[in-house]
Design a protein that fits this description.
Largest sheet: none
Number of strands: 0
Order of helices and strands: HHHHH
């Protein structure tokens, strides 16, 4: 997390108002909800998992068993069931 000095980005009147509540402390101001990224979207992990899950669903529709898929992907049978029976 990068720290920014309030005096460098906020108008003096707002800094004075904030100082009524917090002085000399670190204050975290979160992003608006609309700016939040879904888990894994920045690193690409989400895309990789979505592709893996699509591959698992296709293999299941083509006749592979839950147990075979679990062994192939090093996942538990319960996890495979969640993937193949998930409503898309």
């Amino acid at each position: 997390m990068k720290y920014v000095k309030a005096e460098n980005v906020l108008p003096p009147s707002l800094v004075s108002e904030i100082q009524k509540y917090v002085q000399g402390e670190t204050l975290y101001i979160p992003k608006p909800k609309s700016e939040h990224l879904k888990w894994g979207s920045r690193s690409g992990t989400r895309k990789v998992m979505d592709e893996r899950n699509a591959e698992i669903r296709t293999a299941f529709r083509n006749g592979k068993t839950i147990h075979e898929l679990a062994d192939d992907h090093y996942l538990s049978s319960e996890t495979i069931k969640k993937i193949v029976y998930q409503k898309c």
